[in-house]
Each structure stands twice: as C-alpha cells, then as structure tokens.
Design brief:
Blueprint: E1 2-7, H1 20-27, E2 32-37, E3 50-52, E4 60-62, H2 64-75, E5 82-92, H3 95-101, E6 106-111, H4 119-124, E7 128-131, H5 141-152, E8 185-186, E9 189-190, H6 200-218, H7 220-227
Parallel strand pairs: 1-2, 1-6, 5-6, 5-7
Antiparallel strand pairs: 3-4, 8-9
Helix pairs in contact: 6-7
Length: 231
C-alpha cells in the first residue's frame, strides 16, 4: 500500500509516521508513506496556499491552485483508489472505514487546514471525506496520522500476531473484553477463575459475553449496531 499525505505542516507528521507499527510496516515493505508539502505546489512567489473567503467570514481558506497541482502531479505517477480529505464535517472514521481502506492500493490524504478548502476541490477532486471526531484540531495532520496508523496495522504481515487485528475493539461493533496478566492476585483482586481453567471454549465464551456486556454498558450506540437495533 502507498499513502501520500498532502499537508501545510509536514513536520507534524515526522513522529507518528516514523515509530512503532507504522515504522515497522515501512521497513518491511508493506507500506510506503510519503509526505508532501503543499507549499511546494504553490505558484505564488511567497508560497501561499490560502486566500480570503468570498463570504467574508473570519479565517482563511485553502485555495484551489496548489491543491489541484499537488493532486494532479501525484495522479500522473499512478492511479489512486481514494483521495481523502480530513475535515470536521466528514464521515466519522471508524473501524469499518479502516477495514475498507486497508484493501486499497494507493491513497491520497489531503490534510484540512484553516477554515477548510475551496468547495470546488471537494466537488471535483475528493472521493472520500473523513473526520476522526466531533472536535476541532489545529489541522488535519493528526487526523491523517490516526487514519494512517489505523489502516496500516491491518495490512497482512504488519502485526506479529496475524489474528491480533481481528480481535481488536470495534471489529464486530464490540469493545474488547477485560484482560489480565500476572500476578493472579493483586491487592486482593483475583483474575477470574475461568481464565485460569485452561478450557479454551469456556474462555472464548466468557470473553465474548464480557465484550457484549461492556459494550452495552459503555457504548450503547455501538451495542445498537451490534444487535441491529434501530431508533
């Protein structure tokens, strides 16, 4: 998989894209991740990528020209399955979206900034708009890092345990069950006896039931998806 990230703040992505699982995926050749400075595609002598809004509202808007130049330049080199724009009003990014994107070959992520991008970019160039939550960030760089990490870890061979990603929270609209390690007793609290039984079938049944109960209690919205309930 190849992910090209277009941003006005490339330095913000240095750390999250060069450590842990993402770093391992790149070193093993499972993922290529390239960060592009949007200012490099500006024709303005000051490398500006924004301009005032016609609506006269506060804040600046990312202009068409540098974004189009950046995207079209990348598209000349290869075909892209998705051109994603990170924006607060996009579709909420979840595990289902991560699973879908992990099956793609080439992706562009355009990091939103300022008061957003010219609507014509969204109409003509963007194929998918995603948000990581109902809050505002300095820019879309952190959202791009979250999406990249979530997707890359799903690629076959990236994780040392091939089944690990399949048992993560949200894969089946369920939270993960509680987990324990040694010691078996800590400050009077004991590991559930069933986990010490060695009976894989009973342990799996217990974990499933715990996952269902935790989801119902902590995330009733997910529990409705799990049960197929509708409002």
């Amino acid at each position: 998989m190849r992910i090209d990230i277009i941003t006005v703040l490339p330095e913000m992505l240095d750390s999250p894209l060069n450590y842990s699982i993402v770093k391992r995926a790149k070193e093993k050749g499972f993922a290529e991740i390239h960060v592009h400075n949007l200012r490099d595609y500006s024709t303005d002598k000051h490398r500006r990528v924004d301009d005032y809004s016609f609506s006269k509202g506060a804040g600046m808007v990312m202009a068409v020209q540098p974004i189009e130049n950046a995207i079209e330049s990348l598209k000349k080199e290869r075909a892209y399955d998705e051109i994603i724009y990170t924006t607060p009003d996009g579709k909420l990014f979840d595990q289902k979206e991560a699973n879908i994107l992990s099956l793609k070959t080439n992706i562009i992520i355009l990091c939103g900034h300022y008061k957003g991008i010219d609507q014509r970019v969204r109409d003509l160039l963007i194929t998918r708009e995603l948000s990581i939550g109902d809050y505002v960030l300095t820019g879309g760089e952190l959202a791009a890092a979250v999406i990249t990490d979530s997707v890359v870890r799903l690629l076959p061979g990236v994780l040392s345990d091939e089944t690990s990603a399949l048992s993560d929270s949200f894969q089946d609209n369920l939270l993960s069950p509680p987990v324990y390690t040694r010691p078996a007793v800590y400050k009077g609290l004991k590991v559930p006896e069933i986990l010490l039984s060695g009976n894989d079938k009973l342990i799996d049944d217990w974990k499933y039931q715990q996952a269902v109960e935790r989801t119902k209690k902590l995330r009733p919205d997910l529990y409705k998806k799990f049960t197929g309930e509708t409002d």
